[in-house]
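3.2 Worked example (two chains)
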Amino acid sequence: MNQKLINLETRLRQLPSVAVAFSGGVDSSFLLAAAKKINPKRLLAVTVSSCFVPQREIAFARKIAGSLGVEQICLEVNILENLKVVKNTRERCYHCKLAMFSLIKAKARDLGIATLVHGVNLDDLKDFRPGLKAAEELGFHSPLADEGLTKSDIRRLSRQLGLETWDKPSQSCLATRIPCNEKITQEALVRIDAAESFLQDLGFAKVRVRCHKRIARIEVEPDQVPSVSTIEMSKKILPAFARMGFEQTHIDMDGYKTGKMNHEILPGQPGKDICHPA
């Protein structure tokens, strides 16, 4: 494990200036911390804000960059202006990542930063991730995957480095809650974000609210399904979700599993959410 970290630092040390695509998630936070540790001449964390990302995640990214003492900039993009993204085909993540990472590349070029990196890990390469193609086309490097670091490796090393993100629940963009080929709307994204925030405030840290038009399907971790299914909890959730605009609310008794929306795209091949920010 420590040898992987040494190899990663050696790889990063060869880069005089680095721009990190930074979401504040487990992977990109670890990558940013590793880059900071080797102290390049210029290190920049670049976060892209869109309606696909809850504002609480943008705020958290600012907090982590600040705690690491790394310069950060946040770029805004109206991703719903991109009709290829809004159509929500199986290639949605490619078009989304192409738009966001193009902004990062342009900003890095303007600032004279030579190298672009993102926090894709080895596990990500085994999944259906159209966004990885966009990153590769734009010249982004993936040092974590190149050094064979898995998600579990990154969590262990993050804990070793004292990063508060070591046990942060995995996040994915809000668009992953909407079935493939169903048009993405601002209204649906707001409803999903509000619903998930409500459940998190009730104590369900890892949660997804899959949005089938006006029907909500709640996923929590399997061991929390009994808790979310109680009559007392239903009395809190059902009226709140109705106020948000959901006509029906269901609980997935199978519990949360990454990539359930992928099953219709890759039948029989369960995997992680398509657009899963590092």
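3.2.1 Second chain
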Amino acid sequence: MKTRIFIVEDELIHLEALKITIEETEMELAGECTDADSAFEKIKKQKPDVLLVDIALPGLNNGITLAQKVHTELQIPHIFTTSFTDEEIIAQAVATQPAGYLRKPVDPVNLKAAIQIALTKTTFQQKEPSKPEQSNTIFVKMGDKLVRVDLNEVLIIKADGENCISLVTEKKEFICRTTLKEFCTQLPESFIQTHRSYYINLKHLEIFNEREQSARLKNHTAPVARNFRKTFLNALRKTG
């Protein structure tokens, strides 16, 4: 039976090169995807033997967060293919326990060797059922860098247009290219929606101004809309 490979890569030239290499080495392409946000369900469905994933991908998630989720929940070995040389990024990638780390453009011989190593590790690794781990850390792409953001430090999340949101901390504001609805499906329980365009972190709530219908979190304010007020007040009673 042929080894089945799934590729997550947003650069067409590198995607096509990987597909050609897989074909030449008599492996089978299990599937492909150009973004990390939609890749997980496809990988889960196809059940490949090995995942090839780029680190820098468009969307809320990236190669590192995707690889961690695949490793934790599906136990499928992954190999990073990337142009990144930054030591911090490499350290973040290594923390996901990859089977390999290949620089672009990927050499066919190195790719084949990395896949064989990944399969060997999987064969001899004693698998134990593991519970999915919920991380409170995300990576936000800013220019050509991935910046780690701790959700515990985020005060407010607000929509900034149809496909853009802002993560507001006490001292900084990070911009993500995604929708508020999509992003907020993975938030910790401390976050609650107070407006169709706002979520707040109750851990940092200082004052609720009933007259102005607003919440204050460390010198930042967020509106509390009428149709979210009951849920908001119930949440306050539980935390109090």
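3.3 Remarks
Residues 58 and 187 are 19 Å apart (CA to CA).
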